[in-house]
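dude i think i finally got it to work??
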Amino acid sequence: MTNNPDHPDFTIHEFSAFASPRRVRIFLAEKGISNVNYQQVDVLAGEHRKHPFLAKNPFATVPVMELNDATCISETMAICRYIEEMHPENPLLGTTPLNKAKIEMWQRRIEHTLFNTIATFFHHATPGLGELEIYQNKEWGQVNKTRYDDALVQFDKYLNDKDYFAGDAFSVADITAICAIGLAEACGLTIPDELKNLNRWHQNVSTRPSFNA
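look at this
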């Protein structure tokens, strides 16, 4: 797509070190969309909890997509849905009713059992964001670490004869899994060697150019 830095298609407000903004970056890279203005929000300095960012997203989370008419869309999957509807080429959310449903099913499963659990572990059982952490419960963090580990085993079995999570093509479900595992790696956790299928999947998707978006 044409890249015109003077007239970007939209702005993404993000903190690039976080996993959720990475999901959007990979999604955009897979779509071939590069005419984007990325604005960093200094989460470590608490910028996300102050105006003017709160005017864009009162829930104080990143990423946020801001359209050229100042409309703001938050929540990762809502942003991805908008992008998919506006740029249906290289579909990542499915093309048929059944395919769309399966992708949504696996995206939700992965988000709940991998992404959210490892995020909870990060915020509760590690130093997390330091002084920005309002409340921490290490026991709850460790419970979620166990849930994350159990999900890895379950997904390894599922991927026995599959290259991707939802059908024959790379989808947003794979993106969510990539970013969850990336967050785990940032916490010092790796996929156990005995999970051969999951490691094969991870090695395969890690070769995609979008992986380093």
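Residues 97-212 form a domain with the Glutathione S-transferase Yfyf (Class Pi); Chain A, domain 2 fold (CATH 1.20.1050.10).
im so relieved honestly
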